[in-house]
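pinning this so it doesn't scroll away 📌
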Amino acid sequence: MFLIEPDGPTQQLDFNFQGTNVTTIVTDSSTVKKQLDSLNENKSMGPDELHPKLLKETLDILSEPLAEKKTFERDNIPDKWREANITAIFKNKGDRYDTTNYRPVSLTCIPGKLCEKQSEKL
């Protein structure tokens, strides 16, 4: 089923996000391997264009470098891992011309999510 979008102008959505610094990451390759193995292969890839299926199939090779503390130091994190594809999703209620009836959804890179998961455990 497709949604029919109304004709006419729409308001510009403004998303303001501030990044957080990850200072210390302590992990091991087996933890990263488990996280990569549990990836849903049917999900979309992030701005880095690394598909979850590729990451899952190469987990034996990638788990060791992704587990290294140096990988997640601020100066070593690739710029693409800090990016997100953001889109507005209609909440299925109210006027489609009112921006408050939309919610932002961001699609981030999987290695960046791994970094975030590791920092939450600290």
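📌 and the second one:
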Amino acid sequence: MKDFIIPYLEWDVLHEPVTILKVDEIKELPEGQKRIEINRDERYKLRGTLYFKGDYDLILEKAHLSSTVPAGSFIKPFEIRGSDQHGFERYTVESCSFGGVHMHTGENGETLCEVNLTLDKLRIKYKTEAKGTRLTEWYLNGPRDNVFWKVTDRQVLKSFFRERWASKDEKIDSIKFSGKSWSGGSDFLEIKAGDLQFLVTGVPEGIGPNWSSNIGIEYKKSWGRIPDMNERKKIEELCSFIFGRQLLSIGYTTYDKDGKIVEGYAKNPRGDDPRVLCSKYDYPAIRISEPPARGKAEDLISQLLPSYFERRKPLHLEEALWFYWIARNMPPGPNLPMLAAAVETIMNGWFDHPKSKSRGVLMPKTKYKNVLREEIASIKSKLKEEKEGDKIIKNILQAYVMGVTDRFPVFFNEINLVVEEHEWHAIKKRHVFAHGGIEFDKTEWKPLIRQVQTYETLFHKIILKLLGYSGSYIDRSIVGWKDKQLV
């Protein structure tokens, strides 16, 4: 497959290390000639090494690594700029700080220093007058199941010439032939949603880390427009939910109309070790990989994206999904409060939304004010009865604002979602873990795992309902994980 791959078209700009040969002078770095090499480590985090000749103690001081720096100090990151030898590529290293310092003696007795650099982002600008017309965002942790169904062909055309000359003017032998190599397979989805059209593409094997299923989301001006970074983040979030995997962005590449790079942007993947996330199985809310479902992910993303764009902010869907992904990577039981936080985040957004009939209160504000006046008068007449006064104040608060438990049935009723008895049991179970009422040595883990799966299914149903979906979903609260209809 490697014969059919042009790496810079198929993966991010750090598919191989880059070297900054001319580093701009800044106060955080030693003066004089130096170079920086940047690559990705085994966890796909950005790592750099600064090489220079100079004073070891000076770099210790600049790197805040001396014994005089208090433990626990916060080091202010800095930015490094530079270029390649000829100025064809300009580099910006963002949020940079120093790690360990190593030194050794060179052949001429000079001190050679190597400084480890940690960094968050690397931006590369290529010297060109061309404008970017295509952008591909790169991700770790793409779907492992077979969700792609549209075909990509890759062809390599080869020509061969061999000529032998007895003298300058006498050719005694000549061989010429041409050939074509081909590779193809199902490896992308085509999404069309409003004025947005883009591809979700699988990255060919042999490029990118082999412990991850790598994908790109490709945008092109001629397909409509290239969305801005905030819109691309929304697309990433919905695709993650549909695929049942949290996509981990590692940057993007911008190309001109001829496929040459205009800008490269590399960043650290989210989380401490993405290999852990990439080792997990797909957990979609709807079946998208079995043969009858081929193309289902394409239809779902196209169908739900406009609703997600519209409702993401008012219903706090970004934050809710963030809680959900955290919960997916926690042990069963302790993750129940995090799943509850995901649901309650959406619920809070709903009660702030004009479509909510109750707005999360038990009575209209004007009526509440009248009740409040009456209760205050009653309190004044019973000031000497302290317990009675406390009881009245408590009743005043309960008369207006719903408690969390009271809000659940109202929320489900307002969004017209049917919640079954075992789902209510899972909702109540999260209180046990949230308030420290669990004894791990007495816990029945099989029922607990089922309750977690029930709460996850409930979260899926809420998201799908709010995005206007009607159809089948996977019910993981029952043995066999069978499909049910969401109506």
